[in-house]
Design brief:
Elements (H helix, E strand, L loop, with lengths): L1 H18 L41 H10 L5 E5 L2 H9 L4 E4 L13 H12 L5 E4 L5 H10 L3 E3 L2 H32 L14 E2 L2 E2 L1
Parallel strand pairs: 1-2, 2-3, 3-4
Antiparallel strand pairs: 5-6
Helix pairs in contact: 3-4, 5-6
Amino acid sequence: MKTCIAVLLMFITSAGLRAAGIDCLSCHSNSPKAGANTQTQTGKPMLAGLSGEINPPGATWNYVERLKKLTKMKLVLKGIDTAEDAKLAREHGADGVIVSNHGGRSTETGRGTIDILPEVVDAVGTQIPVLVDGGFRRGTDVYKALAIGAKAVGIGRPYIYGLSAFGQEGVERVLDILRAELTLTMRQCGTPSIAQITRASVLKSGMRL
């Protein structure tokens, strides 16, 4: 019922604005009719690049070096999915890399990040940390990534599910569940601390990694 009322109010509001001669689309950056409207983003540095130039043809490894020189903050590159790119990231000054396929949206026909992780970890060694995200839903998933060599595991949708259902308490509950599952898996594998988790606990197709 609340959803129906919200939709009705939205319809009445937009109809009223149109009747008053106000073009709703002039305030929105994207719409089915107007497409990309970048005029409203002028003078807003935090929104620069939203029209597509965030990844221009000139975004080479030299661009990474330039970013490194522009800030004293740590530079972490996300979207690394090959050993070759991991080595280049390290050589061009990255302080860390994130193995990610961006939720499967950008390279949905590529390999899963858990399959990519071993070669990236081996490529950079202990010189820079490797993080990973993409499809982690259980504490056992987190354990496998840590065993392979990830220093941290990112989650996106799980906490969004909790937030959508129960707000802050839902997010906290999701984290509690993941923590409990990870702790249980660690105990079952005889690794009471994170430092003791190694590839010896992981098999792929019946073979050790």
